[in-house]
Amino acid sequence: MLIGFFLSLLLGVVPFSGNFTNAVTPTATAPVSALSFSKGVQKTVLDNGLTVLTKEVHTAPVVSVQVWYKVGSRNEIKGENGISHQLEHLMFKGTNDRPVQFGRLFSALGSQFNAFTSYDETAYFGTVQRDKLEALLTLEADRMENSLIGTEQLTSEKRVVISELQGYQNFPSIRLGEAVMRSAFPNRAYGLPVGGTKADVEKFTVEQVRNYYQTYYSPENATLVITGDFATEPVLKVVKETFGKLSKRPKTATTRSTAPVATPTPGAKKAPIVLKQPGSAALLQAVYPLPDIKHPDVPAIDVMDAILTGGRSSRLYQALVESGLASSVSGGAAELIEPGWYDISATAAPGQELPKIAQVLQQSLAKLQQQPVTPEELNRAKTQLQASFVLGNQDITSQASQLGYNQTVAGDYRFIEQYLAAIAKVTPAQVQKVAKTYLNPAKQTLGFFEPTQPDGQPGTSGAGSGRTVENFSPGKPVDPAELAKYLPAATSATDSTKQSLPEQFTLANGLRVLLLPDHSVPTVNLSGQIDAGTQFDGNQKAGLANLTATNLINGTQTKNALTIAKTLEDRGASLDFSASREGVNVSGEGLSTNLPILIQTLADVAQNATFSEDQLELSRQRALTSLKVQLDDPNGLGRQVFQQAIYPENHPFHSFPTVESLKSITRDDLLRFYKEHYRPDTTTIALVGDFEPAKVKELLNQAFGKWQATGKPLVLKLPTVPLPQTLTRLNKVIPGKTEAVTYIGYNGISRKDPRFYAALVLNQILGGDTLSSRLGTEVRDRQGLTYGIYSAFAAGINPGPFLIQMQTAPGDAQKAIASTVALLKQLRQQGVTEAEFNTAKRSITNSYPVDLANPSDVSSIILSNAVLGLSRAEIREFPQRIQAVTMTQVKQAIEDLIQPENVVIVTAGPGDTTPKGS
């Protein structure tokens, strides 16, 4: 239930922000407009005022159900900051008729579900196999009217919300953002954090939250969106039977202060807000007031944003990042029900001063105000915005979210089409006008975060070996048979036998290709892996694989970095490289007309990268900044210490970049690594999308045919990693943090281990889902000790760690650890029940078709299966392999893989959370 989720969701699918890294030729406006997004949408308003939007999309056997309430932090009065978000959490705690954690019900249905709170809206969404549609509707209707909001529920969920809010305070960017927004909008609810403040959350009463629920969670204040594989008339009949019987609720007036966008009186600029606190990198944030979403200037504002921050070719990237002043820059326009704002954020490069960055930023904005943008820039920006819309709506969940957002915030589900039509008509004069109007220095609120911590010092550490304090006895596991009586009826098994299999072939040079045509959307999704991962780094040159991967796109024998960027961004395509342990991940997407450009660019950089000294130096500085940020983040530092405690120094999984290793890497190192490890016979490419396989084969042969490898590729033989001899406890202190992050685990299994499928079923029961697993039920739901807890087997080509991760208040860390270890012991001693076992298998197999409904996810799954050495048919047979797991196999997996006496426990965060004497 991520309050920040709305950002990642909306940046991809609505005209909310322009920090687009994926950008289609200037002629691409035609296919986008022709998409006619709202075609086939039926709007129905029930007698009780509920707006229902239905859209049949028969591309996959799944449906998405979303309920959007027109209430968010905008509606909160003084002293109630965060009440919308608190209520969102409570909506999962059960109803009068179903007094059970709703996450467990959704999980049992195989739903991929979540919720988020934003400024103007709170939304709940789930995507399931089509036969579970009626069950989802029944559950959503139930919690619209009958949610349990009592003392017990509020007390435990307050602790969870405070843990969430404190977790955000670990990040300097969020602390700076909150300070800037408070200053920019001192008398408006938009100036307060969406999630709320600890002070207000602690004071919420049951009556207060219940009144808020009664006021805003009413049919006439909600939009129900259903997209996917269903027939409209029978579904509307079910909607009327479930939601139609809910009654309208009387509204109580809420007083709040709003402010229109006004021209400021001439005067001096506000002095920057300066936060001097423990942290890593120096940060800048600038905020400018904007009009509301219905204002006619909105399309031009978003085009302006794309010109400023839309990818590598954008003005601010060139002025700040390519100049070496900043490690990153981003921007976004928040266009909401009430007047919003434009936000520009930058992270300083090592040794660079924030006032200098602010000065160059202001010069760039002034230039935009003084001179019209070029036709090339204008076309690129329009293309990015329009392509982003298509690429962001490839799956039905995103389409439902788009409709819900349009209806709730813009007041019309057809808004996006009017918006895209207006984007196509934006002129250079309009861009210049909105830049002059809204990027006014007198309206600016500027903030600086200046870290006080010495560079790269992660703080002290305490180490010990011993027992966690056994002061806790876990409750009895929730019986799924008991849960079943609250589940609405839904019958049917997964049928994945219809899933098309990719065509697989190998080029003459050994490059492996998987092709899966999908003509449902005019897009292409490319996933690739080159066996040139960080396992080849070694400790002395840790960071080499990643620097090589990120520099691929920085120039070839015929194109410099900017030319490559424009080649892609002019067409709305993106191509990214990042090194992981076992390979370099390649991800690309674009409209289907641009597949040749994607393939040609990939082929060029894989064969002809030049690794210029200038670009290497810039990327090194960015890597050093990233390292500082990682060492200052309890998640990043905790994971590093955890892995280094599990894997010996001679194991590639022990290796992490250091300041020294990054500084020691030369251009010759990159050229050597590139020559040794970038080979066609260690490269795999998967393509899913709107193409003809015969044409793609021809294209691939032309692009990659001359790429040849000599000799045999290097294959590492990794040392065997035994379990720790005893329980090991490590603690890392990071100054200035508010929440601790804990990792618990040890080395696990590989993907091809015969126990893998049994381990997946076991993990689903233990910690596969924060709301429905044993760990989630006990540590999060019953005790309220953590915002999030999960377990996972990181199984790759080689065995990776089995780990449990959680976030807690420092004072709660020890109790949460003791609870977790006790749960592992309980699992080992008592095993799992037949009902848990069957529910876990159903949950995994029922949610799998949802993964297959997104072409982007399908390309990743196909690639992963191939790289891991699995059969082409794995994508089809996976559910059957889960169903075939026996209770005997799960018992054996517990015996082999759950070892509570031998765990490594690492906590990173504020203060010492290690128990005394351990």
UniProtKB/TrEMBL annotation:
- Residue span of region Disordered: 249-271, 448-473
Q: Where is the Peptidase M16 C-terminal domain?
A: 203-385, 664-843
Q: Which residues form the Peptidase M16 N-terminal domain?
A: 52-197, 512-630
Please list the GO terms describing molecular function.
metal ion binding
Q: Tell me which positions the record assigns to the signal sequence.
A: 1-22
Q: Name one Pfam family in it.
A: Peptidase_M16_C
> Which UniProt keywords are given for this protein, alphabetically ordered?
Signal
Task: Name the PANTHER family on file.
Answer: METALLOPROTEASE (PTHR11851), MITOCHONDRIAL-PROCESSING PEPTIDASE SUBUNIT ALPHA (PTHR11851:SF49)
Stated family? Belongs to the peptidase M16 family.
Task: Identify this protein by name.
Answer: Peptidase M16
Q: Which taxonomic lineage is given here?
A: Bacteria, Bacillati, Cyanobacteriota, Cyanophyceae, Nostocales
